[in-house]
Write a structure and sequence with these properties.
The structure is a single chain. The protein is mostly helical. It is built from 5 helices and 2 strands, in the order E-H-H-E-H-H-H. It has 2 domains: 43 residues, no CATH class; 37 residues, no CATH class. A two-stranded parallel ribbon has the order 1-2. The radius of gyration is 17 Å and the shape is elongated. The N terminus is likely disordered.
Length: 104
């Protein structure tokens, strides 16, 4: 995790070990879900620690919305020539396209 505050040290997900609540940004979930080559592994490991109760992570509904939206856009873009929200919205109405993007 990077800190935007000057003079503060940068914390790594792998070294976080406090039992206090920590806000988890959408990027951690997105890196995990989309197998980001740089941060995917550390994000997956951190989220596993949250799932196992080793880390007390919290998110908000807004973060959840951002996660789902960005994953939808990323997966849709693999199947479209022109990627914009309107194209994605229209194509998601097509059941076959929808199944490609979000298989059950």
């Amino acid at each position: 995790m990077k800190s935007g505050l000057k003079g503060k040290s940068k914390m790594k997900l792998s070294t976080y070990n406090s039992k206090e609540k920590i806000f988890i940004d959408a990027n951690i979930f997105i890196f995990n879900a989309l197998d980001n080559p740089e941060y995917g592994g550390s994000s997956t490991e951190f989220l596993s620690r949250v799932e196992n109760g080793e880390v007390n992570g919290v998110i908000t509904p807004v973060v959840m919305d951002e996660i789902l939206f960005k994953i939808l856009v990323a997966k849709s873009s693999r199947h479209l020539d022109k990627v914009n929200i309107w194209t994605i919205k229209n194509r998601m109405r097509d059941a076959e396209f929808s199944k490609k993007v979000m298989p059950r």
